[in-house]
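Forwarding the complex inputs:
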Amino acid sequence: MELAELTWPVVAALPRTTPIVFPIAALEQHGHHMPLFTDSLLLGEVIRRVKQLPVAGKVLFAPLQWLGNSHHHLDMPGTLSASPRVYLDLLRDLAENFLAHGFTRIAFVNGHGGNTTPSQQALFELRQKYRDRRDLMLLSLTYWDAAKPNEIIAGLTQKEMGHACEWETSMMLTIRPELVVGDLSAVTEVPFGTGGAPGYRGWTMPDRSEPGHIGSPAAATAEKGEALFRVFTAGVAAYLERMTSHAGHGWDV
Amino acid sequence: MELAELTWPVVAALPRTTPIVFPIAALEQHGHHMPLFTDSLLLGEVIRRVKQLPVAGKVLFAPLQWLGNSHHHLDMPGTLSASPRVYLDLLRDLAENFLAHGFTRIAFVNGHGGNTTPSQQALFELRQKYRDRRDLMLLSLTYWDAAKPNEIIAGLTQKEMGHACEWETSMMLTIRPELVVGDLSAVTEVPFGTGGAPGYRGWTMPDRSEPGHIGSPAAATAEKGEALFRVFTAGVAAYLERMTSHAGHGWDV
Amino acid sequence: MELAELTWPVVAALPRTTPIVFPIAALEQHGHHMPLFTDSLLLGEVIRRVKQLPVAGKVLFAPLQWLGNSHHHLDMPGTLSASPRVYLDLLRDLAENFLAHGFTRIAFVNGHGGNTTPSQQALFELRQKYRDRRDLMLLSLTYWDAAKPNEIIAGLTQKEMGHACEWETSMMLTIRPELVVGDLSAVTEVPFGTGGAPGYRGWTMPDRSEPGHIGSPAAATAEKGEALFRVFTAGVAAYLERMTSHAGHGWDV
Amino acid sequence: MELAELTWPVVAALPRTTPIVFPIAALEQHGHHMPLFTDSLLLGEVIRRVKQLPVAGKVLFAPLQWLGNSHHHLDMPGTLSASPRVYLDLLRDLAENFLAHGFTRIAFVNGHGGNTTPSQQALFELRQKYRDRRDLMLLSLTYWDAAKPNEIIAGLTQKEMGHACEWETSMMLTIRPELVVGDLSAVTEVPFGTGGAPGYRGWTMPDRSEPGHIGSPAAATAEKGEALFRVFTAGVAAYLERMTSHAGHGWDV
Amino acid sequence: MELAELTWPVVAALPRTTPIVFPIAALEQHGHHMPLFTDSLLLGEVIRRVKQLPVAGKVLFAPLQWLGNSHHHLDMPGTLSASPRVYLDLLRDLAENFLAHGFTRIAFVNGHGGNTTPSQQALFELRQKYRDRRDLMLLSLTYWDAAKPNEIIAGLTQKEMGHACEWETSMMLTIRPELVVGDLSAVTEVPFGTGGAPGYRGWTMPDRSEPGHIGSPAAATAEKGEALFRVFTAGVAAYLERMTSHAGHGWDV
Amino acid sequence: MELAELTWPVVAALPRTTPIVFPIAALEQHGHHMPLFTDSLLLGEVIRRVKQLPVAGKVLFAPLQWLGNSHHHLDMPGTLSASPRVYLDLLRDLAENFLAHGFTRIAFVNGHGGNTTPSQQALFELRQKYRDRRDLMLLSLTYWDAAKPNEIIAGLTQKEMGHACEWETSMMLTIRPELVVGDLSAVTEVPFGTGGAPGYRGWTMPDRSEPGHIGSPAAATAEKGEALFRVFTAGVAAYLERMTSHAGHGWDV
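Prediction (whole assembly, six chains):
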């Protein structure tokens, strides 16, 4: 179900256990070879494919919110980013718009690494604010955490998602190849680094990469992209299926 | 120029006087006969048409931000709205993303009545914050203020823009007729009222309309919609042309 | 009724439909020829005259709040201004002080252009916050919007209110001529400009006027001032009469 | 010097060591026998008398800000109060309006007990914010702390300032006797209590007094009021004299 | 009772009139001769001694919160301070954690001068927020206000508490003499100054003292320290006894 | 180096690359069998042991901040928690106190699961705020992420850290056995659940556990506790060693 295309009386008549899905992504620099809208285009494609599947009939999809938490990319012009606290508020507001009408199941499906921590912080805050509503199911899922492509797809160079990397570039080659510009084979690898693991290190993109990508864009192919879309789509769909079939109470989903 | 499709080095190379246009709209109830995404669809069509015109080559368009200031519609489920102060912050952030890189000309092109006051408040705040940058041109324009359809188009019932009204319904019939649902001829007129004029009255939609529309949807036709799109498109394009050709200093645009 | 002179038990005994009027103005630069308190003095005189009329017996007047939203004048020393968000909060607080006791009708009567957008924003926020109180009548009125002097008074040079202009200077000549300083005939006209119309442009006073006035002070006379006071007083009184006699529900006032 | 009556070029020409005085008071319940504007009227009279003295020529007086920190009186209708944090912001803004132009000496002269802690908190915050400006002199003075009436005036029943008490009622009898209503001799004493001394106890007026006064209004006379005004006026004037003649650096004033 | 050592079911079973004591201090510069933790060590010792007394059995002690409102000391490195508003929020949160479970008696026992105004501001705000809970007893007490050592202890040089002064240095010599460093006899007196009395002056430590102490550290002895601890401990214990035995309503404690 | 015991001139003389360690934990419910201070006691012991090691000579340790982000435990009385945004501000303030003096390396060493997301959010915000300081190393590390006990210690029942669980109870038995109350063998296991993995689910403790623990306390022994302390201490020490020996720039630590 597409929220955008419904009238309000139709929404008013929905069961309050209907899962509401908010796709959230970003508009931010993706190196010299990929467009600013990369995260939104890729998540948009994952969501488009999920909507072809049976689970889509049981879930209400909001339009993709392309404004993300991207201050770490602001040194590169063109990036649009909500301030960190504003982004927390924005996610809260989206959820509260439905919580106010008694809906109980909310999921942010995320396509941008910088949104992961804020979406958890926002859901933590929301759960506390509505602590007495025991039936709330407040979830976030970053799409590339929904599956393990390396266990399924042969030939991937990277072991994890980077930024404007083999994986993202491959997926863009699948859906919008004309937006991948320049000589890809000449784009040098930028290593992932440890990033303070097993802890966390605060960072901006210039701390990690001068051109703006992280990983191995030169290894990208449209075939890998198609395989990645299939794997991620299946993962997200399975997650929403679990959410839909859940009893609504308790910790397990 | 489409911001979404550019790479960051391309944006970095743009002249700092390039106007940046942020289309802003809403996802909110539009009565029993129109979809929640009405404002975003209509503004999106105006912008799409503007992009066909010569001025578009001199302007950088951000993607449409569909989350608006719609708390007055929150009684009707499905409406998504940023809290009033969060919306002010969001507009500020969008502008600052570019102001931080030295760009000087920002315009919000708006397609939702509830965004008008906040966009003025946000621009007021921004101008004060950057008071020492004398070359800033910070503008907002609601598209239906960009032209006077009644002086041009024959047969219009309404004298001004309402909500899910003759004008909006007509435009939707032009671009997405399948999203206009029910028997339009049976949708009764909801009068505009005075609304506290010549002052202002704080309101929520149930103060004004039980079904959620204001005006005369039954008078809508696809032909009127096409005429309205043409008039509004021309008005917005002319405004952007003025913005583009302006010297950048002083009060006149 | 003068709130300032009442005891609290008298206020406690008032009908909850009693309109509460908050006069709001500013203390800000008014060019080289007019005092900082111009807006407060002029609105104070309008209110003083309204209090002579019958409607005053049905309305409770708070003292004039002279601190306004005047950051756009801060480049000129002496201006006192609340920060934009603080001003929104201040207006909210004033209204809530009475809303908390069940009063339902609040009006800001405004004498400063910079307060117009914030008073609308504040009333919007208040209406949403108390969305379930269907009997609220939350109004703002800028006094020069309450009448059309050009249709009534002969000889006015300006078509609209400026700043430290023909109209304001005339009114000051009527009530406090000793506070109009310097050779008025030598004060050159500062044109209004378009200001981004039909859109809005964020501005500070140095964007528009170096001396600090906008319009034609040299055209001011005490006679014009008296005529303006009469017209505006009648307009404000008529508005309060409408507010007083209103049923309290619905959009019309 | 009256800020309200000056033009901005006159303010711009003042020495930056000119002390700026902000009189701050309240509009809040003062029992069954005294008007809501008591604090503002009394401080206004103190300031009016100070302005007759030589020190007034060296000091710039802002108009009295009647909106105070009065939430502890909000149970009694008619009270107007800024929210606690908004009041801190309002005081900060007033000071910053002048600090931004290089002025260095600011004093809040206060006539309301509820403003004492906030004015100290606000000055603390301001001093830290502008920590590198070593010449700042940021002061607050509550007028009844500026003198010790019991050591000077014979016949006072109270040892300290209360609320709508012997002292305040006496002063009101001096300047506006018609605003003291009812049979004063029948107003019973409300004892001061310990209030958690030598610590502090958070309170609202109903914690301390049902009618709204604290102290002994029945002991009030206009003669005592005149004597109190003289003592307090002298105290405030002496304080401003110290402020004016101070070198500007260091802890002593 | 030590909150830290209890399990939650034990706390859940406590009478709601049990006083909750929050010791609050600071980690901030204390001159060249005293450690950063001085305030926390000294208050900790006062609290440790109070816990030996009978009243301790009727009171629940939270652990000492060492992070204080110390921005006025931030010019000296090592100082840790919450921002002024954050400190207000932190105190509010501590109290609300217990207010939310129906507890009614809260006391901040304070060991840092910079916390005095904020603790009063925080309690003021809390009392207003929970204005309808008439049984709340919200208190703060700075330990050196709980007694008058000069009236009891012979030989004290100072008349009041300073900073890293005779009194504090004496107390440190009593409990942790190894943390008093350098040649104490060579530490010169820094006079108290008037500090804007009888008003208040916003300050940072460099406004008052270059080395960071105020008062006469050279006069410190361990014997004076022991005497001071005894006097202050008795004062705090007596205050808590009053709090414990109070009826809970009304202004007196 | 113990920050608490130093004087400010000693801190002022430290190299700006000295790592500053802020231990952060919580005071919150830990089931029926463990005290509220569990997290703080356990992290305190880890830090105490780290301080015995050579790395401690190169690092400056702040005192443990026991107030954590524990709103998810607030249903159980006794829990003390900063509001979510206040906790973000508090962490920011701690770091900024040192950043303001030019220090470049900050690490939060964390002993409470609820602090993990906020510490990352806070560091993200800090890094953006000081984006132009390229030498900043802003880190957080939760102590149980610093090692993999299951790969080293035989006999552990749990595979990961729970709450008041086998691991935490074991460690408490090692250092403060008298604070483990009741019949441990009778404490039933509370399973971990999926918690929305591979996504995140907003939760409060009653969503997961009625008694307040998660995991298998009955499996706890003091021997396991000692082994866990050794493993975690080594892990934290190794991390600080990496931090100390790092060049300061770049993503790797």
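The helical segments of chain D are 8-12, 38-50, 84-99, 116-129, 166-175, 205-208, 222-245.
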